[in-house]
Amino acid sequence: MTTTAVVGALLIIMADIWVRAVRLRVLCGGPLTTREAVVVNQLGEAASAVTPARIGGEPVRFAELKRLRLPTGSIIAVLITERVVGWALIAVVLVVAVALGGGELVALVGHR
Question: Are 82 and 65 spatial neighbours (Cβ–Cβ below 8 Å)?
């Protein structure tokens, strides 16, 4: 792997972390700082990484947002909204992938 590829991958990861933090701040609509949002998201990712079926991420994010004194109803609405947005983004990427290379994609998957 080249240095350029590693730097590019790190930049993409950093952009993802920042965008997710900003999205969390906007959805919470409260006094959540970007730093706090990054910590909440990364704690959730860490918990997801060590629990079966990534089931630990949302409870950890809930607990951390609760510790930051956000209202329970807001936290639940934010977590559900983020989940729906995540699935919608996956659907959009899937549709674009099929539109751009659907035949080859189906053929590739079909042979496996």
Answer: no
State how far Cα 106 lies from the chain centre.
27
pTM over 0.70: yes
User: What pLDDT is attached to residue 97?
Assistant: 82
Give per-residue pLDDT as tens, 69-107: 999 999 999 999 999 998 999 999 888 888 887 767 667
Residue 95, classified by CB atoms within 10 Å of its CB into exposed (0-12), middle (13-18) or buried (19+), is exposed
How far is the C-alpha of 18 from the C-alpha of 70, rounded, in Å?
20
Rounded to the nearest 5 degrees, what angle is found at the Cα of 51, between the Cα atoms of 49 and 31?
Answer: 65
49/69 Cα distance (integer angstroms): 25
Cα–Cα distance, 69 to 32 (Å, whole number) = 10
CB 43 within 8 A of CB 63: no
